[in-house]
Amino acid sequence: LYVTLEPCVMCAGAIGWAQLARVVFGAGDEKRGYRRFAPQVLHPKTAVECGVLAGECIALMKDFFAKKR
Predict the structure, then answer these.
(1) pLDDT, tens digit (0-9, with 9 covering 90-100), for 41-64
(2) Which residues on neighbouring strands pair with residue 23, listed in sequence order?
């Protein structure tokens, strides 16, 4: 699974139940990300890669929400 932003706890729970082999995300989410509240929610064999193109992902998210406001 490739996503722009770190999954929330609920999404990470679904990823854990699905037993995905790999999760790749760009920007971490310090406020609502699963690593803050439930770092063990993913399946133990799930490989997690974070920070991939983080700068670009952060810019994409900021630009999107700036246009919404």
Answers:
(1) 999 999 999 999 999 999 999 999
(2) 48
